[in-house]
Amino acid sequence: xxxxxxxxxxxxxxxxxxxxxxxxxxxxxxxxxxxxxxxxxxxxxxxxxxxxxxxxxxxxxxxxxxxxxxxxxxxxxxxxxxxxxxxxxxxxxxxxxxxxxxxxxxxxxxxxxxxxxxxxxxxxxxxxxxxxxxxxxxx
Length: 139
Fold this sequence. Notes:
Helix content: 25-40%
Shape: globular
Strand order of the largest sheet: 1-7-6-5-4-3-2
């Protein structure tokens, strides 16, 4: 299993951080690889359609939502499941931390990590910094 993670501090309140991170249709504002995400409602079992600017799109399945705290996105690939865990952790100074971890599970996990996971991992730090800026100023 291949995995990567990030832990990014923001001055946004936990409520602002949660609102920014769960606003999937606007993820293209902090992740320039995303063309669009369509999602009717942020709830367990909901499916979002992701369209990338390059490469194939994906269906994102929302799971394990704990309002204001955490959620998981599952993406089913051939012989691989990509699991992305998202958590907003309050800090003592009134801000928050965006804690993010992605795992590539299954027989082809290493293959999919090599195909695009390493690029997601490489881009995660600048994307998370942009997410912090958005949470602090627009939510």
